[in-house]
Amino acid sequence: MIKTAETYHVSVLLNESVGGLDIQPDGIYVDVTFGGGGHSREILRRLGPGGRLFGFDQDEDAEKNIVGDQRFTFVRSNFRYLKQWMRYYGVEQIDGLLADLGVSSHHFDDPERGFSFRFDDAALDMRMNKRAGMTAADVVNGYTEEQLADVFDLYGELKQARRIAAALVKARQQAPILTIGQLLRATEQIFAREREKKEVTKLFQALRIEVNHEMAALREMLLGACRLLRPGGRLSVITYHSLEDRIVKNVMRSGNAEGRVEQDFYGRIQSPLHLIYNRVITPSAEELEQNPRSRSAKLRIAEKTE
């Protein structure tokens, strides 16, 4: 397991995810979640002198981890614009794409980013791209009660979504909810104590997904990858929760995010990809011991069909 850029992030399922790309020495690869650069460094280690690697990250902090290698190009952008950037660089086809969809340790451990409920006085931010406009505070204070309930239900799968939304609307009438602590105090009466941490985690997940438009970006990136991959090219994706995993599984099995299955005259499923493994790959006991945050990670690998 590699820890990159000091404590920025510990690479999850490193050998399994990069190995799943079946690296060709002169191939063109994309790491759409560059972060601390751990997966990118391993890809570069397996590439030959004629290979190329593009690393995407919308967070300016990731630029500090840029790999000093002439084969590597850093793209500071949301991965939803994958197709546009590849066109900009004159790349018509790629041999493989890797995505680690987890939030980095760096984001959870930085109080200024507002991703963790450990920091009571931290601002409600949660933006992956600090240049972006909308923050979690904007969502909590600006959305209607119905909109908030929909966000918590859809992206947090919270059974008490409507009660949480009502509590936030009531609290913000007294004063704007601008910090992590204010958010927690506004909702603390709703969660049963034995499930509080798990439910608050879901609440933060829902806000983060809404702020960063994560599901829409994921769908666009995956569909772009399907078009860019050359026949035999590989897609290697690590997911951490059921919402993103469902989208990844649907695209890999049916070629669309909704999971609509199309069949030919003989009943054979028509899809641009086929799964390399029918089961998901999960971290080993050794990896879990070293990095407990990887416990929810699931790796799926697919190959572009002819």
Give the helix/strand layout.
Blueprint: E1 3-4, E2 9-10, H1 14-19, E3 28-31, H2 38-46, E4 52-56, E5 72-75, H3 82-88, E6 94-100, H4 105-109, H5 136-142, H6 145-156, H7 161-174, H8 180-187, H9 196-212, H10 214-228, E7 229-239, H11 242-254, E8 262-263, E9 269-270, E10 273-275, H12 285-290, E11 298-304
Parallel strand pairs: 3-4, 3-6, 4-5, 6-7
Antiparallel strand pairs: 1-2, 7-11, 8-9, 10-11
Structure keywords:
2 domains; Rossmann fold; DNA polymerase, domain 1; two-stranded antiparallel ribbon; 11 strands; 306 residues
Report the sheet-strand fraction. 15-25%
For the biggest β-sheet, the strand order reads 5-4-3-6-7-11-10
Oligomer: single chain
Number of strands: 11
Domains, number: 2
Largest sheet: 7 strands, mixed
Termini separation: 34 Å
Number of helices: 12
Rg, rounded, reads 20 Å
CATH superfamily of the largest domain: Vaccinia Virus protein VP39
* SSE topology string: EEHEHEEHEHHHHHHHEHEEEHE
* Morphology: globular
**Named CATH architecture of the largest domain:** 3-Layer(aba) Sandwich
Task: Explain what this protein looks like in three dimensions.
- By secondary structure, the protein is α/β, with parallel strands linked by helices.
- It folds into 2 domains: 3-105 and 214-304, 3-Layer(aba) Sandwich (Rossmann fold), CATH 3.40.50; 111-212, Putative methyltransferase TM0872, insert domain (DNA polymerase, domain 1, Orthogonal Bundle).
- 39% of the residues lie in helices and 16% in strands.
- The protein contains 12 helices and 11 strands.
- The strands form 3 sheets. The protein has a 7-stranded mixed beta sheet with strand order 5-4-3-6-7-11-10, with helices on both faces.
- Helix 6 packs across helix 7 (161-174) and helix 6 packs across helix 9.
- The longest helix is centred in the middle third of the chain and has 17 residues, at 196-212.
- The radius of gyration is 20 Å and the shape is globular.
